[in-house]
Amino acid sequence: FSFSWQTTFQDGGEEVEDGAVYNVTLKKVQIQQAANKGARWLGGEGDQLPPEHTVRQYETSKIRAIKAGTLEKLVENLLTAFGDADFSYISIFLATYRAFASPTAVLELLLDRFGNLETSSHGEVENLNSLESEMVLRAEIASVLRAWLDQCSEDFREPPDYMCLLKLLDYLKNNMPNSDMESRVQNLLKQFQNQEVEAVDGFCSTSSSDLVDGEELEISNPEEFSSFQDHVVAEQLTYMDVMLFRRVVPYHCLGSIWSQRDKKENKNLAPTVRATITQFNAVTKCVISTILGTRELKIQQRAKIIEKWIHIAHECRILKNFSSLRAIISALQSNSIYRLKTTWMCVSKDILLMYEELSEIFSDHDNYLTSRELLMKEATSKFANLDSSEKENQKKSQKRLQLQKNKGVMQGTVPYLGTFLTDLIMLDTALQDYVEGGLINFEKRRREFEVIAQIKLLQSSCNSYCLIPDQKFIQWFRRQRHLTEEESYKLSREAEAAADTNILSPKSQKSMVKRISTLFLGTDVFTPPKEQPLKSSPVGGSSGESTDSASVSSCEFNHSETEDVCMTPVSSPEDPLKKSSVGSDKGYDSDKGSVSSDKGSSSSKGSIFDPGSGSDSGSNPTRDSGSVPGSAPRVLPVYNRQSEGSCIIRVSMDGLHASVYKSILITNQDRIPDVTQRALLKHNLEPDAAEDYELVQVISEDKELVFPRDANVFYGMNSHVNFDFILRKKA
């Protein structure tokens, strides 16, 4: 006999039970069966029977995937999901449940209510007195616990009492004595108890507080920095990034958790994510300090340092370290470095082109589509896929890449974590936590898991790195005194003023200006940024905004309740950087750890919320990402675009920096009082004071749209400009 089969999926609607709603998909398998013997006598070619002699059989199975439910139902579904053919449910639940429940609550339900072999009311087990029923339930519980320990063992790290781990151990001793599971839990408990309480950032942290006694912060010595080879610097930055990224606990990135980090009681929330942000900002500030920290440098010497950092960024690209790569590019595009136009004129043409190509990776076009596609393309590849439009750069790239390949060790991939944080925050903003009846919206968790799964995949790839720490460089890196934004700007002005007194010849200057303008503008016109004195920022620690401000990494909001997404100051219209390939690049807030993004960027084509875009985290779900076949998600609301009666706006408080905003989901039913209350609540202010505030849409630098008290925000707003709003106290 020969067999062939074809599988199709059909939407089976919904099934509603007490406390749960399920999506149903019908899986239809067509099996063709034919007897090979005598096929030729019946007119078949080879061993194939003609169609009229083929036997067709159909098998239909039902796939049930829980869509929403009470916590009790979601926990119970851990035991039944495999039978319902929802094979990814356990992984999705374990990766996202911290958004709506605690480990203690889940463990108590799992063990006390559904795992008690004597009194369990588990629906599939009718007769718990039978040996067979006990074995079924024991196997289901063991399967869930094994997955929990494999995927999320950090959930049980609760020093000094370890209550959940002790409860689990007690359960295993009573119900599964002398099992491998019991031994495993005992070993995990010993491991946790024996480990010293460590700061999450460990020895890789670059903050000054980690210096040993006797060490002092110092401004970078150009000669000492130059003594480190480019590939050594890139390898050491990658080593530090890998150590921190591998420690990131995925649920720390969930929007509902990460967006709460600025509340006073949450100062220790998501420490693994904060550690990666600290490292990112340390790299950015190190770049700025090495370029500006020494006043005595000549123009050519400063240009050589810029060239060195571009080479280091290229080495990071070869190592597939997108975190430090972006940190370096962000620093070079920061206000204080970008404005050194005379210094940039001394950077060689080949290196400028290399810098341009590296910057293009992080272009904000189509919701950072280029970096998303590249990241997923190289997530599991052995080596970087380098391509350069410049022949000389292409030769250098291939030569360096060949050296890596000759070592015979695969490279992992370190992502820029801010992309995932932004995606998860936008998902959290766009989708409701609960649906009708007060049921937990588990479809939201499935969408979040698509992003979490990418983080986990990249963390696994980092195991491929084989890097050895260079303590000399690490100690040098830790000792660097970071310049404040005010210091950087002052030193930048001094360096440029000194350069103006010893400027290049008019002919070479004209050539260089044309080159720089082509790099950043794509035109032959170079308009230097306007310069204004720095203003005092109303937000502690920030330098305020100058008209040529494009600073990425150093927007420090020490005392503000920063948003899910923290934007950098936007360049003025005269600032060429705003029109550059990267613009106000996305970065991190150095204290609060918020993601910075271009105020004008729009999540349109290629957005994670556009099911038609197949290149990013929100593309059509597949079986691998835990979604049900045949169930197409709706188009979710996004920033800067009204779609299907909803959109996302950004609301900042009057008197605070414009970069400190909150993302608010509004629909065509929302009026001013509702939106004002939600905005105040997100800014951790008293929502009852809504009547004291007015909502204003920012149209341009000198125009505003003030909404009447009961206006419909969705229909009243100007949809042709950025969806940026201000809450202002009424006069």
UniProtKB/TrEMBL annotation:
- Composition-biased stretches, type Low complexity, lie in 593-619
Annotated SUPFAM superfamilies: Ras GEF (SSF48366), Ubiquitin-like (SSF54236)
Q: Among the record's GO biological process terms, what is one?
A: Ras protein signal transduction
**Keyword set, alphabetical order:** Guanine-nucleotide releasing factor
Q: Where is this region: Disordered?
A: 527-636
Q: Which GO terms describe its molecular function?
A: guanyl-nucleotide exchange factor activity
What Pfam families does the entry give?
RA, RasGEF, RasGEF_N
- Where does the N-terminal Ras-GEF domain start and stop, copy by copy? 62-193
Keyword Phosphoprotein applies: no
A GO CC term assigned to this protein in UniProt: plasma membrane
InterPro entries assigned: RA_dom, Ras-like_GEF, Ras-like_Gua-exchang_fac_N, Ras_G-nucl-exch_fac_CS, Ras_GEF_dom_sf, RASGEF_cat_dom, RASGEF_cat_dom_sf, Ubiquitin-like_domsf
Span of domain Ras-GEF: 229-498
Span of domain Ras-associating? 645-731
Which residue stretches does the UniProt record annotate as biased composition, category Polar residues?
Answer: 544-557
User: What is the protein's name according to its record?
Assistant: RGL1 protein
Task: Give the originating organism.
Answer: Cinclus mexicanus (American dipper)
